[in-house]
UniProtKB/TrEMBL annotation, chain A:
This is Amino acid/amide ABC transporter membrane protein 2 (HAAT family). It comes from the Bacteria. It comes from Roseicyclus mahoneyensis. It is a multi-pass membrane protein. The keyword Cell division does not apply. Pfam families: BPD_transp_2. InterPro entries: ABC_transp_permease, LivM-like.
Automatic annotation (TrEMBL), chain B:
This is Amino acid/amide ABC transporter ATP-binding protein 2 (HAAT family). Belongs to the ABC transporter superfamily. It holds the Pfam family ABC_tran. One of its GO terms (biological process) is L-amino acid transport. Keywords: Amino-acid transport, ATP-binding, Nucleotide-binding, Transport. Residues 4-228 form the ABC transporter domain. Coiled coil: none annotated. GO terms for molecular function: ATP binding; ATP hydrolysis activity; branched-chain amino acid transmembrane transporter activity. It comes from Roseicyclus mahoneyensis.
């Protein structure tokens, strides 16, 4: 077992043990914190596919997080108010079913990622960052002006959505669902990284514009990765909305996009468990330091500086050493 | 039969024109040396063939008009490039560098490994950790893994130690003798080019100033246009 596998396993063990302890000890707030961390981790695992593996620094992934959130919000809003979503030739009802909501969140986010990716991937570097940021702001301001679904005030969902066979209002059960989805996303990421598609993506990131000379379509690989990345982040958005039972335009804001990047930098870019470590560290700092000092973001900024200057592999790199070991 | 034909090809970098109506013909199984001093349009010609730079004029490869094809599709027709500066995928292993480029055909990992035993020994090593010569071998091996019909070597021996250069030239000679692969080679080593190339095309200021059998290239012409 490599050092990195050991660190990853330790992190997973903590993500199982701490919520279980909190459940036994009757500390539901700790479970909620862990759920928040796991959902952020899921969103960042999605972004890491684009950023870490594909080298696409997207400053607009909040679009997919928000679309996932609003997919949940809109479907649940119509279901709880017994208002059809569409009443024309056919009638489309809202739903409180999590699997259906997740599927819609994934499809909507993937379609948005396809459109945004098609346009954004014509650019690179700082222009790519700016165009993805611009898309984020477009969605943000659209959500603010969308009065049918709460506008600036957002949309409250009174009761958490349903999952067959589970009581999703029990924090530990909802946590279990989120954790299982994080594991699935990590498994998918690992598979992609090791696949021939992952190799193409990796090569396209390393020598932009040259991968084509060996007959590979680097742009298409990047677009596919961007779409998968957006879909995973969208799923995380749907879970986040369900956790809070509330969606608002802030899910689309550039702060959210920035935070997703911060999770990856904190944990380690292009490391499978980097986004998980980053999200857990962020939520822990937010809770512990935030209790002590209102301006805890200053400390977060200082930590980011230290990591960027002295530990570019992030937390995982610090604990597990260099990214890849070959004989 | 002509495998690659360039007719009246012009190319520019923004406002600066780099090629002025270049004609080039390369037959199946032929080795052609593309020569000239620095900045005369050799690498630009390669970029136009590989569709890395937009060009005007006719570019025909194996009967296919390259003008409307994107770079990766031109490569899939059978144009294998060993780029200047090697450009290996540094964070991938030797094996991954080869696998990622693999296309169906006689060249596979084993055959490349037989051609470059050093690469076979370092299959699991990251490309970034290889020496310059080994990276060059990897760049050639990667291009061969695409199973090309035309191999383009752009300054493949530049900056390498004499022993490694000799090794690379021996490989080029072997490819010519054993596989009959068409090769377009850009290099400044006239002595070695004379040994492997059938014909030479010399560029000066973006124009073909001499073209003919390698044996017919006299010292005065090469000194004037190539500098050696």
């Amino acid at each position: 077992m490599t050092r990195e596998s050991f660190v990853n396993l330790a992190l997973l063990t903590a993500l199982v043990a701490v919520p279980l302890w909190a459940w036994v000890a009757g500390e539901p707030f700790t479970i909620t914190l862990a759920t928040r961390a796991v959902i952020f981790a899921l969103a960042a695992v999605g972004l890491n596919l684009a950023l870490g593996l594909g080298g696409m620094v997207s400053f607009g992934h909040a679009v997919f997080f928000g679309l996932g959130g609003y997919s949940m919000g809109i479907l649940a809003h119509h279901a709880q108010n017994f208002l059809p979503l569409y009443d024309g030739l056919i009638v489309i009802e809202g739903t409180k079913s999590m699997p259906v909501i997740w599927l819609v969140a994934i499809v909507v986010s993937a379609l948005a990622a396809l459109l945004i990716g098609l346009l954004s991937l014509r650019t690179s570097g700082v222009y790519f960052i700016m165009i993805t940021l611009a898309f984020g702001q477009m969605f943000y301001y659209f959500a603010i002006s969308w009065r049918a679904y709460g506008g600036e005030d957002g949309l409250s969902i009174w009761v958490r959505n349903d999952f067959p066979g589970l009581n999703t209002l029990a924090p530990i059960q909802f946590y279990g669902l989120c954790f299982a989805l994080l594991l699935a996303a990590l498994w998918l990421s690992a598979r992609i990284a090791r696949s021939s598609f992952g190799l193409v993506l990796n090569a396209a990131r390393q020598v932009p514009g040259r991968v084509e000379t060996v007959g590979l379509d680097g742009q298409r690989a990047k677009l596919v990765a961007f779409v998968i990345s957006g879909a995973i982040t969208g799923l995380a958005g749907a879970l986040f909305a369900d956790l809070n039972r509330f969606v608002s335009p802030t899910m689309f804001s550039w702060h959210m996009s920035g935070e997703l990047i911060v999770f990856i930098i904190l944990g380690g870019a292009a490391r499978l468990f980097g986004p998980v470590a980053g999200a857990v560290l962020f939520v822990a700092m937010e809770h512990v330091l935030g209790d002590l000092w209102d301006h805890w973001h200053i400390l977060l900024g200082a930590l980011l500086l230290v990591i960027v200057l002295f530990a570019r592999g992030g937390l995982i790199g610090l604990l597990a050493g260099k990214a890849r070991n070959h004989d | 039969m002509s495998l690659l034909r360039l007719e009246n090809v012009t190319a520019r970098y923004g406002a600066a024109q780099a090629l002025f109506g270049v004609d080039l013909d390369l037959a199946e199984g032929e080795v052609v040396a593309l020569m000239g001093r620095n900045g005369m349009g050799k690498s630009t010609t390669v970029k136009t063939i590989c569709k890395m730079l937009p060009a005007e004029g006719r570019l025909i490869f194996d009967g296919h008009d390259l003008s409307r094809l994107p770079s990766h599709q031109a490569a899939r027709l059978g144009i294998g490039l060993v780029p200047e500066g090697r450009r290996c995928f540094r964070d991938l292993t030797v094996a991954e560098n080869l696998i990622v480029a693999a296309r169906p055909g006689p060249w596979d990992m084993d055959r490349v490994g037989a051609l470059f035993p050093r690469l076979a020994e370092r299959r699991g090593q990251r490309a970034a950790t290889l020496s310059g010569g080994e990276q060059q071998m990897l760049a050639i091996g990667r291009a061969l893994m695409t199973n090309p019909r035309l191999l383009i070597l752009d300054e493949a021996t530049e900056g390498l130690a004499p022993l490694i250069r000799a090794e690379i030239w021996a490989v080029v000679a072997r490819l010519k003798a054993e596989t009959g692969l068409s090769i377009l080679v850009i290099d400044k080593s006239l002595k070695e080019l004379r040994q492997v190339a059938d014909r030479a095309v010399i560029l000066a200021r973006g124009r073909v100033v001499w073209s003919g059998e390698m044996a017919a290239l006299d010292h005065e012409t090469s000194l004037r246009h190539v500098g050696v």
